[in-house]
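Entry
Fold in token form

___
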Amino acid sequence: MTNKSRCLLLVLVAIFQLNAQELPKQDLDSIVITSARIDLPFKENSRTINIITSEDIKNSAAITVADLLQQVAGVDIRRRGTGGSQADLYIRGGGFDQTLLLIDGIKMDDPQTGHHTLNAALPLEVIERIEIIKGPAARVFGQNAFTGAINIVTKKNLNNSVSVNAEAGSFGQLNGSVTAGVEKSNSSHIIHAGKLTSEGYRNNSDYDNSNYFLKSVFNKNSQPIEMIATFFERNFGAENFYTTNPSFNEYEETQNSLLGFTTEFKSDRFKIQPRVYWKRNQDMFLLRRNEPLFFRNFHISNKIGAEANASLTSNIGITGFGLDISKIYLRSNNLGNRQRFMATAFAEHRFSVANDKLDITPGVAITYFSDFKFNAFPGLDVGFDISERLKAYGNIGFTYRIPTYTDLYYSDPRTNGNPDLEPEEAFSQEVGIKYVGTAFRASLAVFNRDAENLIDYIRPNTTEEIFTATNITEVNTKGLEFDASYNFKISDFNQTLAFGYAYLDDNILEQNEDLSRYSLNTLKHQYTTRLSTQLFKNVRQNIVYKYAERTTGQTYNVWDASLVMKIQQLELSVTASNIFDADYIETGFTPMPPSNVLFGLRYGFK
């Protein structure tokens, strides 16, 4: 951190400590974590969970979900450019194939590659909150939740309103969107259409991205049925996304869509939520943008699924159980034509003893893969209420991930898949403590993960040019995370100071330091700070600071900020990213954008 950065941060903190007055009440007490079968209030969960609320989103200075998640300690978003075109999602040092993304509880895993995970990320305008579950989550969600899961919860309604947004800024950025809510006597609808374009901040980094979202609830007055439909298209220059050859001019186009229907039957003691869904992903990659015949990959994957999750409350606690079945179809000119059937049965039971101060939740998931047979993921969560606001907890669990089709079958002049790969396995442990107060909240967690057969692309020796998918024998990962936020008032206006730190240590470098392609960029130290202030009635400011130190020795500091002014229904904004012009790379060979600014105008009416 530069001396200028340190001074600015210290001055800001001092100002707000001197002016802190009456403290506003947070709203986390009212949030129920809905991503599991057993619904529990946030403070009663015996796991490490971060919540990004709709208010946090407004104060984040973020444009996309990828930008937003970078502000969470323990979450590593490695972007190749801007506008959400291509970014990889990591939790606690795991790989981009080891984190599961869910949309309203629907699993968005992609059988081709985890590079596509964030293709399904929603526009910020329709998100109510984001639930980030860290640690072993396979017994709750299945095999892709190797190091954690992220559930994006969409808004329920927008009460007959329309919001129009237009933005313009550096690198020829032009963004526009319309979001509308319609309430009928027996149905409700949320509609969003958006476009993000840019000429690019470097050669061949332009993009043209489209977002379409529809959420409807039918038959509200008797048995509501919820429908969600999305279609996201990303067309972008991919210069040096995967290679360093200056003669290449890489280009990629992706499409991601979802159609899902969910309903719920509920009584005083029993709840069951059935769901059916169809997820589709399409990916076209050109090694030379203007020579399609030189090297072209084209993949289409379809996942059709049905699941039912239930919970039963009795005198001995709450029992959660469920069944998830799905069929995957892949058509690819490189990976071949593939099919896979998957079925997972879930069961867990939460009970309390010692006057309800001690809660214990054992559980297990049993999964069948048509090409990898049966596997089981047992786990246990334990929590103890030290006081009404303070809770200690711990959990252990086994996790598992089968190889993607890219791991198994991909081939190009520099890369080979490996059809003989074994699934990845790990045993994870965690202990933590969290405090959820009316104005202050904090959590501290320490974790350990012992993994076997982790998959990476390595060269057998320094003279060999081809990277081959390989199981690494054993990898130990351990670390700690600390999160805190403090809400206070200045002149009757709400202010927030949030801080996060994550430390991670693994022995991945000892496996094959010079020859590994993906595993050498882990975040060793990560600091995040967000200061959201309102000093005048219609003006609010947000400052976000991010520090990263990776195991390769690379360090960087990035400052972002936004200023928002509201005049009745009109909202004017200025968002500045990378204010001090840091020179850094998050992954691969792609430098991130220099200092840039985006001006916005939003108008809403009912």
About this structure: DSSP finds six helices and 34 strands in the chain. Residues 1-26 have pLDDT under 50 and may be disordered.
